Amino acid sequence: MKSSFSRTDFYQSLEDGFDRRYKYDRKPEEKFTYKRDIKARKAADGREYAYHKKKKQEERQSVVFLPEEKKEERDARAKADWNRLKKEAMKHVSNRAAEIAAIQASIIDFPTVKRDL
Fold first, then answer.
1. Phi/psi at 108 (nearest 5 deg)?
2. Which of 1, 6, 19, 53 is deepest in the core (most CB within 10 A)?
C-alpha cells in the first residue's frame, strides 16, 4: 500500500496537538477547517460569478443585434413615450404659469408714501 502526504491531515493534527498541549481554546473562526471551507466557498463563488458574468454578457450581445422590425417597434414606443412625457411637462408648466399669473393679479399694490425731506 502506498501512502502519501496529506497536507490537510498534517495541519489538522498540528493544530489539535498545539491546542491540547497549551490548553488553547481556539475560536471556530481560527480553526483550519473553517478557513479551508471559507476558501473553498470563495473559489466556488468566483466560478459562479464568472459564469453569471459571461451569461449576462451573452444576453447583452443578443439584445444589441435586434431584427429591424423590433428596432422600429422599440423606437416607435420610445418616441410615443417621449411625446407623452413632453405633453405632461408642458401641461404642468402652463398650469403653473396660470397659477403665477393669478397670484400676481391678486397682489394689492400698496400706495407709496411720499416723505418730505
1. -90, 130
2. 19
Could you give phi then psi for residue 110, rounded to 5 degrees? -80, 140
Cell numbers standing for residue 37: 471551507
Q: Which three cell numbers stand for residue 59?
A: 444576453
Q: What is the pTM of this model?
A: 0.37
Sign of torsion, CA 71 72 74 79?
positive
3 state SS of 16: helix
Angstrom CA distances, 73 to 68, 77, 84, stand at 9, 6, 16
- Show the cell assigned to 93: 408648466
- The residue type of 96 is R
- Please list the rounded mean pLDDT of every run of 10 residues in the chain (117 residues): 80 92 90 87 78 76 63 84 86 78 65 60
Strands (E), 1-117: none
User: Given this model, what pLDDT does residue 93 score?
Assistant: 78
- Give domain limits for the chain: 9-105
